[in-house]
Hints:
With about 400 residues, this protein is of the alpha/beta class. It is built from 14 helices and twelve strands. Belongs to the class-I pyridoxal-phosphate-dependent aminotransferase family.
Amino acid sequence: MQLAARVSQVTPSITLAISAKAKAMKAEGIDVCSFSAGEPDFDTPEHIKAAAKQALDAGKTKYGPAAGEPKLREAIANKLKTDNGLDYKPENVIVTNGGKHSLFNLMLALIDPGDEVIIPAPYWLSYPEMVILAGGVPVIVQTDGKNQYKITPEELSNAVTPKTKLFVLNSPSNPTGVVYTPAEIEALAKVVVEKDIFVVSDEIYEKIIYDDAQQVSIGAFGPEIFQRTFISNGFAKAYSMTGWRVGYLAGPLQAIKAASTVQGHSTSNVCTFAQYGAIAALTSPQDCVEEMRLGFAKRRQVMLERVSAIPGLSCPKPDGAFYLFIDVSKTGLASLEFCDKFLESYQVAAIPGVAFGADDCIRLSYATDLDTINKGMDRLDKFVRSLI
């Protein structure tokens, strides 16, 4: 069969493959410690599930507007104004099938063949693949671990060419967990304005931050950057709604209308009753978000302390999300070989950094219970010591 050329240019998801392998091993009765999944282990809060059940009972089971339920678009616009200082109207928002779909819709609506999209590495592995599927050219900018893997204004400016269309910013970051400071975000905003390009800010982890970190939206630094900003977000991480597949994209009206057209000819509307759960998530007290954040903070501290006691390993202290991005270069193994041996010999699932554009590192998720974390760290200690 002659498949489309675009498919051969895209790399299958390594994270999903490793997660599937770990689940298969567990199904065989093997005691696997999995640090691979990028999803909270907490259940979706009860009031959110209740709202979806109520919507089901009320018959909210039919087709809805392709761009999303009006009440949800309004709730998202209110959230963006209140939490992020972004004055979007409901028509500037499209509800999508998860945060990933919001980014894919944007790429299809904005990127022409040959357009360049600047992506700092380490990056979430789907960014460059989406650009390729849209016919664009991902321009990967390698960042320095000594600078916490943050792209500098100079690096961004130097990467811009006449073909540059979009810059992808992710803070808090997957896979590193780093959070850009307000001053760093503002400096990047100035480059975006000066170079007259667009920026999409992936803020899916915005509610999961620690210590004195402060999450700010790049579009909040004045009208010029606001006009060039897209916001990608969703309900998966903050509200533990990964399987609900509800996300959103906000931005300039012309592009949002275009994204709605794309969605209208692909998936149509997001699951109707799931959107009512999302409305409840935004309009109800946020105590559940804080409870989960505190749980992640405790796990982060335990995993950080355990990793820091293992010779040869190092990683930046994450200020957000629920990942450690660990430099394993001193073991002498590239990331994929490291993760393969770790899973096969010690039954621990980790994600190789090569998937994120950093082959010297691995990603561990601490979105799991403390018993699993401690057991897995015991195994990591033994594995690394056996190598070095």
